[in-house]
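Here is one chain, start to finish.
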Amino acid sequence: MATHWDVTSGFLGGTLSAWRGAQSFAPARKRPEKLLQLYDMENCPYCRLVREVLTELDLDAEIRPCPKDGTRFRPQAKALGGKKLFPFLVDPNTGTQLYESADIIEYLSRSYQRRVRSMRPIALAGSFLMSGLRSNKGIRARPSKAPERPLELFSFEASPYSRPVRELLCELEIPYVLRNTGKGAWTDMGPESFRDKLFKARKDTGRNRKILLERTGRVQVPYLIDPNTGTEMYESTDIVAYLEKTYAA
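Its structure:
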């Protein structure tokens, strides 16, 4: 289950990293027709830098988790790129395959026509601090049952509530479509109950925020869709319990 420390460490880590990966005020001008594919390890500081930029550019991606000792996607990544190094991006829209977080970020900025904040030394320091706070979470594979179809997760990188869900998905090697739901305006800041009462502003400030609002009447993350069972749910603690019951072996 998601614990108090999961959320507290998430808030602390988000503060230390200046809440990179929380907003998408300036989304990519160009959108990929096919989903990007990211071979990823949740608690890897270099992978986190790429996921932060995916949030800021408002780009979705299929996450293929590659935790240590993983057998589901690590061999696949090596077969494609020649080595087990992460992050590893595959863009089926251009045929591009890339290692190295800095190269991936530059590629995403150039290909999808929106520059992102650089400050790499600061960003990397914040990412390493977050990995330290989360310790062994989202690092090592656990036995699991593979789903027939990838799950879907509405999330944004800096969300302290989404992080425990993504960590468990990584440990269980469950592929999922990451629906980036970054904050599209300053009125999105803060928890749902706080911001909606205080600002009473539009909730559909971003592409996936609009989809969530139309689908559920709310905008909150994480939100999980499992097409294999027809399950859809909010609340990180409930989602973690569901994943453990359904997919942990």
